[in-house]
Amino acid sequence: MIKQFDLKRFLPVNCKVEYGDNGQIYLLCSKEGGKLEVTGEPGTLGGVEWKDAKYIVFDAVNHEDWVMGVTLEFWRKGNKGDEPNISVTLGLLPGVKTRLSFPLEALNSQKMFLDRTPGKLKTVLFGNKVAIDEIDRFAIGVMKCFSEQKLEISNFHLSQNEPDYPLPDIKLVDEMGQYAIKEWPSKTKSINELKVYLKEESAKPDDAIFSDNRSHYGGWKEKKFESTGYFRTQYDGERWWLVDPEGYAFQSIGLDCVNPGVSGRVDGIKKLYKWLPDENGEYKEAWRKEGKLEFFDFGIANLIRVFGEKWWSEWAKITRRRLIEWGFNTIGNWSSLEFIRYAKLPYVWQLNNFPDTTKKVFRDFPDVFSPEYQKKANEFAKQLEDFVDDPYMIGYFLRNEPQWAFIQDLNIAEELLENEEDLFSKEILIEFLSKRYGGDIKEFNRAWNVSLQSFECLKKGIRRASKLSKAAEKDLTDFSRMMIKAYVEIPSVACKRVDPYHMNLGMRYAFISNENLLAGCENFDVFSINCYKINPFEDVESIGRLTNMPVMIGEFHFGALDRGLPATGLRGVTTQEERGKAYRYYMENGVSSKYFVGAHYFTLNDQAVLGRFDGENFQIGCVDICHKPYAEFIHGVIETNRVLYEVADGRRKGYNQPPHEIPKVGF
């Protein structure tokens, strides 16, 4: 059953509204973003019955030249503020009429990144759970941008069934994987041009080595410590350093995702490509399947076009030379292990399959006090057996950006108490509370402002328990810290048993949403975060002061719209030259903190025009899909990487000119 929204009930906020002849509505939104918002009784918002509905569905057209972030916002009854309880952003390609849908079951917030559908890019959900019968305000709009934006909406309704996803007959991607409907400087005009360029690159000498004042590993010969044969940390009385296996001071200047290309999703959207080859023919190594999902890698296809069966070795030769010429001394996360073994350069490694449990507490947070978690941690650690003797390995990351940690001020023990599953961790929580209150349920009831018959009644679950009283909030916060410590400590101890030589580089949290995320950090050798800021100094300083540990940044990037992709990524600037300035400003301010020991740029390659696995299509690479470096950006990279040790040691002032930033086109 389809229930059409009455859009005339919605009020415009920061936008003007125009109506089309065929039921379309146009939102003309300001730079601050804009939306249509409706308030009313839960269950009948927008003039429709929400009961039994499974999906919000609408057709949309982005009338700009860049990716648009379409937003759906939901407010729980009683929330009178501007900030919704849940906000969802859906990526919309320029100029392509696309059917978008949102599954209402996702309001339970158990998933942060929702599945792609044909034509749609990335979908991200922010906030904590909201029940449909609690929602008394709802909005549809666009996220803020560097420019005014125009969004067309039609067929806006609730449905019990997932819709189909029709697409127009247009070609958006050319035979080399470039954006077909846009022109820009350095765009490769033909396959012949591609061949000439890459053969010239291949002909260059492949004997690149670090400069004279650098060690074999890319360390700094002007500062020497004790050598151990492995990478380690050192505080010299002034600041933190890494120390390379020869004993030289080391800052990890890295590049993530050093791979021959980047796969793009093609299932459901093949009609948008000018060319896709046979899956079993000459280009079979560019194809990949994961269940029903299909991927094609134009980066690999372009190498095959030029070098045939020798495509990988030619790419590896070119790329190793480039990394050294650009001043990178670390191969970062998610890079080809084959390339790592070939290149003989320092690297970090992302461990796979972080220990999980059949039953979860919330999102991807496991039942950490269960025997299953300990067993999985022991299995997880075994993968380090293949790396124990490798001096080029700086260390390993336990995992990357846990999804549960994205929620600001999340109280994971509160989520545990609300969860009605039979969990070992809940048994430990009940024991913890019983012990804290001396086994006296009456004392507990007074403190928590509840009326339970026994502590065992806590197994049934309590919603939003931290709001019951200050005592409840403190108790749950304290137990949250215990849970997070176990989450970190159990796999960390298992890993050190297998590999006592390499550094534990931590969790790569997306950000520190509250100080409980620091629990268990004593198990790390280096604390890691991903920091998408223009200047990381304050974040590094804050974490360093709280932990008294060295800090490594696992990801950062900057993109611009002056080349071949319609999204900037998580930090946007105006041009490639400004990207170079942004890199300089970021790295030289970061290394000015005494806690900073390295940062890894994300990534070597641009992302696919129509999106990688999750829909990201950011212009963030050092090279484009045809393996051409962005010269202006790389100039900034080289300038900074050449002087970074002198800035770290205080011999040289850091670059202090901020780039020309614009609001991000990406999420």
Automatic annotation (TrEMBL):
What InterPro entries does its record include? GH
> Could you identify this protein by its name?
Beta-galactosidase
Lineage of the native species?
Bacteria, Bacillati, Bacillota, Clostridia, Thermoanaerobacterales
